[in-house]
Design a protein that fits this description.
- The chain is elongated, with a radius of gyration of 26 Å.
- It starts with 5 loop residues before the first helix and ends with a helix.
- The chain has 7 helices and 3 strands, in the order αβααββαααα.
- Helix content is 62%, strand content 9%.
- It has a 3-stranded antiparallel beta sheet with strand order 1-3-2.
- It is mainly α and 195 residues long.
- The C terminus is likely disordered.
- It folds into 2 domains: 39 residues; 142 residues, 2-Layer Sandwich (Alpha-Beta Plaits), CATH 3.30.70.1230.
């Protein structure tokens, strides 16, 4: 039988210890980086504390209509881009309206607000902001994403053969929604006795 010399045994032990340390670092470092990024994201996403238990605390639940159909019909990269735009838009508006992200699952958010006025203002501004995003072209050509509103001018132009573009319709709708958002938030504040 072969016996290993003490020097060879020490070299082998050192090599195994080094390999083990490298393996531990290879696993631990990505996990720590991921955890750090998650904490960073949360600190940026949730600068507002969760609203306390109150009769005024209001929840807003969002969901992308026909998202299952869209995932089935479109390239996953298109939907990943669309979902990223959607999520960034929602998260970007939360602190402005004192919103707290309670839960997300897939394309759905559950968000809490300290007052109904904050929740309504968020929901209305979110609708306007979503209409103004640079959505992927492939998404805009799917049936579930078809134009559901068209200005009278755009409709008349289509009948005359003049080319119209969706962005002008979107801008008109966004402007109308912004006015509605301001009016609704003001009305809700008045009804709630806050204005």
């Amino acid at each position: 039988s072969h016996r290993m010399s003490p020097g060879t045994a020490m070299d082998l032990a050192a090599a195994l210890a080094t390999a083990g340390a490298v393996l531990v670092l290879a696993v631990a470092v990505p996990l720590l980086v991921r955890r750090w990024r998650l904490l960073q994201r949360r600190s940026n996403v949730w600068p507002v504390a969760a609203p306390g238990l109150s009769p005024d605390t209001s929840l807003c639940v969002t969901d992308i209509q026909s998202s299952t159909t869209l995932w089935e019909e479109l390239d996953p990269r298109v939907m990943d881009e669309a979902l990223s735009l959607h999520n960034s838009c929602i998260r970007g508006l939360l602190s402005k309206h004192q919103g707290y992200e309670c839960h997300t699952e897939g394309d759905s958010f559950v968000v809490a607000f300290p007052t109904p006025a904050c929740a309504v203002a968020f929901a209305l501004e979110m609708q306007v902001a979503l209409m103004q995003l640079p959505w992927p072209e492939d998404l805009l050509h799917c049936d579930p994403c078809a134009v559901v509103y068209q200005s009278a001018a755009a409709h008349a132009a289509m009948g005359s053969g003049v080319s119209t573009t969706a962005p002008s319709d979107t801008a008109a709708l966004a402007a109308a929604a912004a006015v509605a958002a301001t009016t609704a938030a003001t009305s809700l504040t008045t009804v709630a006795g806050l204005g």
